[in-house]
Amino acid sequence: MSTTDLNPGIGADEAVFPKSAPSDPDAPHVRTARVRIDARADRGALARIWESIGYDEFNWTYTATGRKLLQTFGEMTDRGFHVRPHYVFCSGSGFGLPHWGNGNVYHEDADGNPFYDFSLVDSAYDAIVEAGHHVLVELAFTPRDLLPDHAADLTVVPSPTVYSNYEAGAWAYPPRDYERWGALVAAHAQHCLERYGAEEVRTWLWELWNEPDIFYWRGTPEEFYELYSVTARAVRSVIPDAKVGGPAVTGSGVEFLRGFLHHTREQQDPIDFVSFHTKGSAFSPWRVYGPTGGPAPQQQNPSANKMLFEVRRMLRVIAEFEEYRDLPAIVDECDAGVPAHHSAYDNANFQFQNTEYFPVFQVKLMKKLLDLNDQEQAAVQQATSWSFYFEGERYFEGTRAFLTAGGIEKPLLNAYRALARLGERRVEAVSDAAQPVALLDEALGRSMPEEIDALASRSAAGTVAVLVWRHTDDQYQRDDAEADVALQVTGLDADAYDVTHWRIDADHSNSHTAWSALGSPQTPTADQLSTIRDRQGLEQLEPARRAEPVDGELALTVSLPLPAVSLLVLEPR
């Protein structure tokens, strides 16, 4: 693989699934489906695995835009998201370039004595906690003053954005002094404990590094395993009941994960969760040098099957260790594409990150992960969207972000609004046009074909909420015909319900469509911005109406374009 095809954040394993899904204009469509929901068939607490986000640009956390976005997520939850920013221990000026950031904590004086500066960390963590969220503390990477001597061997040509070899990747070398690293980790934990209190920091997750199975770690696996021992014990020395874990490997880091778990078992290291990542696509070439806004050289797409296969494979590695099977699996980068900061101007295949395709994909993925949990011995507790926002973008740049220029919300954010409206208990929902996760072994590397599937819930107040979608892992697929979906809801207790129907598709809950209809302006007027913002939230497809079940049963019909997701909420009157 050439360096021009190396997409950061994804492993090199293509033995089972290719790096992306091809388009197939001749693939068959699903035009009808029957979905049965039994509101009395309780499948247990609905694990809200989607309540987690992360991002590279640590320093955008505490900007006005970053704070507002965190508050927006705070409105979607009563328990808070886990928020995982990169680069807390990296040295720097406190400015976040795309795919970079720094907490600038560790320093040594002229005599070589360590001292710490938590001012940037305080700004970031304050913004997270004040919005009602909790920190997933990624303890990374090596501060400049802790680099080993051989880090100087990493040679780069300086430029206005690559100030030195440190920003170019020297931060990935193991620290030269593990004792000083442990002291840094303990000081960081102590500072957080004093600032936020024991009750808050008990909710935090403390994780070492990021993707040490690839170029984020320029040491050996054994050096990393030993660093975990030092790190976990340093955190626990300050916060005895802290939740510590790792190793946050890529979706192909199977052997690294297995070796890590062997090490923690043999050393009796503290470990409270196991983390790993998955990505649905890495487009090739990852950057196209051609006319601005030109087409992709090859139509490529995210693959839900690829992601599910990688997650299942990692869950099975965890299950090999009997003492670890019940630990939460944290997929703390769980994304349809990589890297986050590349856009539709780099490769037109990234356009899906602007459109209705992405939120429908995300809803589908969350449901399939819940289905995997039902089948495997280990289970996913969090599936983190590695998305936030970027400073300096054009409107609808196409990066993996919840906002575009001007703070306009992209359609992806509405997936989380829809998921937030689900109740506390999952109930039975079965579609005759779904692609179940049991078919993974039959996929033979292929992406998930078109399907209609559903996820349903019930609240303590008796409200039934149903997400039903039509999707295929091909952003270029279109269908002029809508699919007819018959929903049969049974097990209803009330005599009457108010039925509210929200929709995400090309024409609803879609700021990108509104912007495109105005001619895709890069200098929109105030009136145009108002028009776009009017369409950015979760929109109702039709006015709310009253429905009366017969013998506890209600028949509803939904017409779904491709792609689309509907949220139907049945609230007892």
From TrEMBL:
Renumbered residue ranges of the record's region Disordered: 1-29
Keyword annotations of the record: Glycosidase, Hydrolase
Keyword Nucleotide-binding assigned: no
Alphabetized InterPro entries for the sequence: GH (IPR017853), GH39_cat (IPR049166), Glyco_hydro_39 (IPR000514), Glycosyl_Hydrolase_39 (IPR051923)
Domain Glycosyl hydrolases family 39 N-terminal catalytic: 104-535
Signal sequence, renumbered to the chain: none
A Pfam cross-reference name: Glyco_hydro_39
Family: Belongs to the glycosyl hydrolase 39 family.
PANTHER family: ALPHA-L-IDURONIDASE (PTHR12631), BETA-XYLOSIDASE-LIKE PROTEIN-RELATED (PTHR12631:SF10)
Official protein name in the record: Beta-xylosidase
Native source organism of the sequence: Georgenia halophila
Native organism taxonomy: Bacteria, Bacillati, Actinomycetota, Actinomycetes, Micrococcales
